[in-house]
Amino acid sequence: MTGDTVGSVMFTQEEINARAAEIARDIERDLAGEQVVLVGILRGAVMWMVDMMKNVNLDMVIDFMAVSSYGSSTKSSGIVKIVKDLETDIKDKNVIIVEDIVDSGTTLKYLKEYLSGRGAKTVRISALLDKPAGRRVDVDVDYIGFTVDDRFIVGYGLDYDQRYRNLPYITYLDDDGE
Ligand code: IMP
Ligand code: MG
User: Fold this and answer.
1) pLDDT of res. 70
2) Residue-by-residue DSSP string for 2-65
3) 102 alpha carbon, closest ligand
4) pLDDT computed for residue 72 by the predictor
5) Confidence of residue 3 (pLDDT cuts 50, 70, 90)
6) What CA–CA distance (Å, rounded) separates 176 from 149?
7) CB of 125 closer than 6 A to ligand 1?
8) Label partner for 153 (CA 20 to 30 A): which of 46, 91, 95, 132?
9) 44 lines ligand 1 (CB under 6 A)
10) How far is ligand 2, taken at its centre, from the CA of residue 33, in Å?
């Protein structure tokens, strides 16, 4: 990828807010009366994590994990390494992994198995974005904000080389735009 300019807006803050509220209703229905641990995956999921925190009205605690599978390029290495582990005991709790995007599926497949192995009662996934074209391993994603086509997405937490995370909307890197 040579380009380093952003394209047009794909999803606005308003659209994301509306979708977060819809997903929150689904989560409240699915986990009514249950204790929930939201696990945000640093750093890309921070904005979607806050949306889930503000919208999901259930008995909740939050925690964060950091994993690395990408360097500063736009290609996945396929290897997942835990950089920051959970501090919360999730045994017999209902975990919702909050992630920015499902691309190859490697990260979420790994995390789902890892958290199940720590004794969680259930492990669900809420991902802001799904990029089905990138999929290399099967993973069930319970809640998806938006499906995107095969572009490199930035903004609303998602980065290219650590930049663009602060954009309050979802856009993409434009190879040809200068
Ligand atoms: P996966 O393990 O291939 O599914 O990749 C998941 C991680 O790759 C995400 O948490 C993102 O950090 C990163 N990623 C994948 N696709 C994109 C993209 O289009 N833009 C920014 N980051 C991405
Ligand atoms: Mg990430």
Assistant:
1) 56
2) ---EE---SB-HHHHHHHHHHHHHHHHHHTTT-EEEEEEEETTTHHHHHHHHHH--SEEEEEEE
3) 1
4) 47
5) low
6) 17
7) no
8) 95
9) yes
10) 31
Residue of 46, 41, 49, 44 lying closest to 20 (CA atoms): 49
- Taking the centre of ligand 1 as the mean of its atom positions, its distance from the CA of residue 80, in whole angstroms, is 12
Q: Helix (H, G, I), strand (E, B), or coil: what is residue 152? A: coil
For the chain, give the percent of residues with pLDDT over 90: 88
Residues designated as active site: 103
- C-alpha triplet 71, 129, 43: angle, nearest 5°: 40
Q: Residue 2: is its pLDDT beyond 80?
A: no
Distances (CA, A) of 115 to 56, 89, 94, 95, 144: 21, 10, 10, 8, 20
Q: What is the pLDDT of residues 155-176, one digit of tens each?
A: 999 999 999 999 999 999 997 6
Report CA Rg, the chain. Answer: 16
Ligand 1 atom index nearest CA of 69? 2
Residue 113, helix vs strand vs coil = helix
Q: Tell me which amino acid residue 123 is.
A: V
Cα separation, 11 vs 9, in Å, equals 6
Q: How far is the CA of 33 from the centre of ligand 1 (A)?
A: 33
